[in-house]
Write a structure and sequence with these properties.
Elements lengths: L13 E4 L4 E4 L12 E4 L4 H5 L5 E8 L5 E10 L6 E8 L3 E9 L3 E10 L2 E5 L14 E6 L1
Parallel strand pairs: 4-10
Antiparallel strand pairs: 1-2, 3-10, 4-7, 5-6, 5-8, 8-9
Length: about 140
């Protein structure tokens, strides 16, 4: 499965999520052959959000495909607390937008977004470290399609 990031094309590892850790696995294991790609995009109002350092960090998933995902999970690691926090949303239908609020921008250490069908991980961003590569310090968007 091919996945791209806004400024650089790179292969990303598939993410298996457990309650206590992130477990990296083979990106094609269990994936359908025509599973859509997940692409990191630049938000339309990136300059506005980047200028507001006290804002909360958001991750947005835009499903432009005709595939329905049973769930999407963000695994979050913060500077202020140990461990991984799992944020789950279900029934991600075609042409659906979902958003997660990860808390204060400065507190987000890393996160990963994975999508599931029938309990099987079919796509992932791999571990993402928030940065200004896309011109936005407090928000990332990912498209599937």
């Amino acid at each position: 499965m091919n996945m791209t990031q806004s400024r650089a094309v790179r292969a990303l590892a598939t993410l298996a999520v457990s309650a206590s850790a992130l477990l990296l696995a083979n990106p094609t294991a269990g994936a359908a052959t025509d599973t859509p790609t997940i692409t990191r995009t630049t938000g339309a109002n990136a300059a506005t959000r980047a200028a507001a350092p006290a804002a909360n960090f958001t991750v947005t998933l835009i499903n432009l495909s005709d595939v329905k995902f049973d769930e999407a999970v963000v695994s979050l690691s913060r500077h202020s607390t140990a461990g991984v926090r799992l944020l789950r949303q279900t029934n991600i239908g075609p042409l659906t937008v979902r958003q997660w609020n990860l808390g204060p921008c400065a507190d987000v250490k890393t996160y990963a977004l994975g999508v599931y069908i029938g309990g099987a991980l079919v796509g992932s961003t791999g571990n993402v470290t928030p940065d200004a590569d896309d011109g936005d310090l407090c928000s990332d968007e990912f498209e599937i399609g």
